[in-house]
Every structure is written in structure tokens, then in C-alpha cells.
Amino acid sequence: MSLKFKFDAWFDEQLVEVIKQLPDKFTSHEFILAFAQKHQALYIDLLNSYREKDPFEIAHGRLAKHLNDFSDLIVYDGEVLSADIFRRSNKCASWRKKI
Fold first, then answer.
1. How many CB atoms lie within 10 A of CB 60?
2. pTM (2 decimals)?
3. Residue 20 in 3-state DSSP?
4. Among 20, 90, 98, 25, which Cα is nearest to 60's?
């Protein structure tokens, strides 16, 4: 898979803004939904960059994996069952903010 959408420093600033507004413990699904709501145009651009095949799966996967890059703010806290934005229940990462 080619990485068609660049996750640069500016993009990361938008993600940090979302992380800071989430509760102390949250899931990747909750993060993705909060990001999509707060930055709708940016979310659409991300989805559009993968429009040829499975845009939601690829974009959401990249966002969820990218949370690992914010270890100064959050800590991986295992896997949980959670409903995705399509209300399908599946496993995703749980995160805890550092105090």
C-alpha cells in the first residue's frame, strides 16, 4: 500500500488537538470519530486519497497506528471491543493519557 496522504507536523498538531479533548481513557474508534467530527474537511481529504479501494479501512488503520507516535501524550492500554463508525463491533486499541 502506498502512503498517499502525508502525515506531517501540521497534521500531527491537529491530531494532538483531538487527543487533548478526549477523556483520560479512550479507544482508537473514539479518536477517529472525534477527529472526523472536528476536522471534517481534512478527514474527507484523507479518505479521498484512498478512494480506489477501502478508503475507510485504510485511512482508519493509518490513523489508529499513528497514535503510537504520540507516546509523549498517551500509552497503549490493550485491546477492547468497541463499535466503529459503522456501528460494527470489533477489537481496537485502548489508550490512556499520561499524567
1. 24
2. 0.90
3. helix
4. 90
Q: What whole-number distance in Å separates Cα of residue 19 and Cα of residue 30?
A: 10
Contact 62, 21 (CB under 8 A): no
**Residue 12, number of CB atoms within 10 A of its CB:** 13
Query: What is the H or E stretch that residue 52 is in?
Result: none
| Tens of pLDDT, residues 26-43 | 999 999 999 999 999 999
Among the listed residues 15, 20, 9, 99, the one whose alpha carbon sits nearest the alpha carbon of residue 63: 15
Which stretch of DSSP H or E encloses residue 43? helix 40-48
Per-residue pLDDT tens over the stretch 61-86? 999 999 999 999 999 999 999 998 88
What is the model's pLDDT at position 1? Answer: 47
Per-residue burial over 33-52, b if 16 or more Cβ lie within 10 Å, else e, is bbbbeebeebbeebbebbee
